[in-house]
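Renewal narrative, Specific Aim 1. Our central claim is that a sequence can be written position by position from structural information alone. The example that follows is taken directly from our test logs and has not been curated for this report. It begins with the structure tokens describing the chain, in the order in which they were read.
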């Protein structure tokens, strides 16, 4: 039997945040896959300082919150999220081209592709792989985002984080314990929040950086589907590719409700016609079970399930 959901103290939240507080907000408008039920409340934060203040306040009030950036790599339940969603729009970017090595500092809500393009304009190399990766800097560090043999672990120097017990801290890249599409924050479920980060770059020329970015962008367009999706659904198992296994299992193009295993790349599930989170969940189960039956490989989710999955769907999250 499921425990009853404790109602949010909306009166206290209104007193604390005033007109900034939005209530009963549909999260499908803020996720890359365009699915997700309502959040009880939502706050837009526009700077790292604002993010820090909001997080501290919510911790003090003991109110659950979800930090949402670009909305990629998260599947929000149709039942929504019982708590406050912090929409991270803290996106200041500062490039220090004269440093040795050159660096870029950015707030955690900055778009990863925008950071890469800002560096490219100054002839700074190292983030070409990130040009067309969806999502924000904070989410990329949390999940060690990567593409084309690059990833956040290789670029990150340090990040400023906010910890519920230990306050604001500066973490070196080593402390994040990055692994393939993972970090110590993601694995442990630590409630720390990434506020900003410094990435290392290399000196090059605008022409050379642009050429490499164009090459990666063209490769991505040829191999990955357009449209609303969560990004890669499953992690690649050791020595293999999730997309190859799904295709070999005969599942490429399979559809459940409004979501389809992409005919372009089988590790992308595309919202083709008003899909629901439940459609995604059912397709995930079918694909994962079929691949395991045929090849003995249990695919591990790359995306995270968030929100209210109280009808038994929590089994998916627990198996990550």
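The sequence written for that structure reads:
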């Amino acid at each position: 039997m499921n425990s009853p959901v404790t109602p949010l103290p909306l009166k206290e939240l209104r007193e604390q945040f005033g007109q900034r507080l939005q209530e009963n907000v549909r999260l499908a408008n803020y996720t890359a896959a365009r699915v997700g039920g309502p959040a009880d409340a939502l706050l837009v934060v526009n700077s790292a300082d604002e993010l820090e203040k909001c997080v501290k306040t919510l911790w003090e009030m003991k109110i659950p919150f979800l930090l949402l950036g670009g909305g990629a790599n998260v599947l929000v339940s149709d039942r929504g999220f019982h708590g406050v969603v912090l929409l991270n729009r803290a996106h200041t970017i500062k490039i220090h081209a004269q440093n040795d090595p050159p660096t870029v500092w950015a707030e955690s809500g900055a778009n990863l592709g925008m950071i890469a393009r800002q560096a490219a304009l100054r002839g700074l190399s190292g983030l070409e792989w990130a040009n067309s990766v969806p999502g924000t800097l904070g989410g990329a560090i949390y999940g060690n985002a990567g593409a084309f043999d690059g990833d956040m672990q290789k670029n990150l120097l340090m990040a400023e984080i906010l910890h519920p017990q230990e306050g604001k801290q500066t973490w070196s890249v080593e402390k994040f314990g990055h692994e393939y599409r993972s970090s110590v924050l993601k694995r442990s479920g630590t409630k720390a929040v990434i506020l900003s980060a410094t990435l290392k770059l290399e000196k090059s020329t605008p022409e050379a950086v642009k050429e490499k970015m164009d090459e990666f962008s063209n490769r991505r367009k040829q191999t990955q589907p357009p449209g609303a999706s969560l990004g890669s659904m499953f992690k690649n198992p050791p020595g293999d590719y999730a997309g190859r296994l799904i295709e070999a299992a005969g599942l490429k193009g399979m559809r459940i409700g409004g979501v389809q295993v992409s005919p372009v790349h089988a590790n992308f599930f595309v919202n083709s016609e008003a899909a629901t989170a439940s459609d995604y969940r059912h397709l995930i189960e079918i694909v994962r079970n079929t691949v395991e039956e045929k090849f003995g490989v249990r695919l591990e989710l790359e995306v995270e399930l968030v929100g209210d999955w109280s009808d038994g769907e929590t089994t998916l999250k627990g198996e990550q």
